[in-house]
Structure formats: structure tokens, C-alpha cells
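Suppose a colleague, Dr. K., hands you the sequence of a protein chain of 158 amino acids and asks what its three-dimensional shape might be. Before reaching for any lab equipment, you can write down a predicted structure in C-alpha cell form. Begin with the sequence itself:
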Amino acid sequence: MTVCTGCSKHGKLVWEEEPKPKAVIAAKGPRTPLHVQIQKPAGPTVDTSLELVHDFHNKIREAREKLGLSHEDLGKKINEKVSLLRKIETGKMTPDNNLAVRLEHTLKVKLIVPATEEKIPEAKIPKAPSRDLTLGDLIKINEKSKERKEEPAGRKQS
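The predicted structure, expressed as C-alpha cells, is then:
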């Protein structure tokens, strides 16, 4: 119900409507039609410098059991559904950063860590063989031909 400020002193606020997006009107020129753009409120930003630990589901389950909490108790503490918590503990679902922070605080475990970049070891990358002969290759070929000439007469060269 919408009332004046004088009457609002006699009651209490039960429900408040969400603010509607503001409309911005932009005109291009004197005879061009007006364009209306609706600005939506900025959504939550995701911090890409943080990531979940790889075994988050095991840590959550172990910490919950260590504190002696059931799924229902934990759900009431962090205001989440029991089915969501079960899916997270089985690894079928990944919690968002907001839920992970609440779980960290309630269960007293570390779930979010700084992101690490995967480094590719250089030793495992095979080098492409060069097609051209180098001076070293010519020396090796020359040494092999000298060794073949020095072999005993009983052996045949192939």
C-alpha cells in the first residue's frame, strides 16, 4: 500500500518494491527519433583471481561431519537448500564464490585459494627435427664413415 509520509509513521514497512531500472533517453539529431536505453543494475562481479580447491566436496563433507552437523542443520545455518548441499558434497555441483565463502565461514575450512596458472614443462615438448644439415651433423657423418672404414675385414658394411 502506498501512503503519504504522515500516515507512514503509524505503521511499519512490511514489503518494499525493488527499484526499477532507469530509462535513459538519447537524441541523435533534431529530426531523428529518440532512442530509449534501459540501464540494468550492475550484477555481481566474479573475481577470477580466486578458485575453489580441487577436493572442495570432500573438505565440506569432512568439516560438516567433524562439527556434527546434518545437511539440514548446515542448510539452516547458511540459508541454503539441503538438496543443493548434498549435490555439492557429492561433487555433482560446484558452489559459486558467495556460497563458498559462507561455507568457509560456517565450517571453518579453506575452500577458495588464489588461482594458479598451469605451467607446461619445457622438457616434455618435443623439438621439431631440423631438415637442414648443420656443421655438427656433417662432422658426425664424417666420423661414422671413418669408423666403418676401420672395422675388421670379417664384417660387411650394410
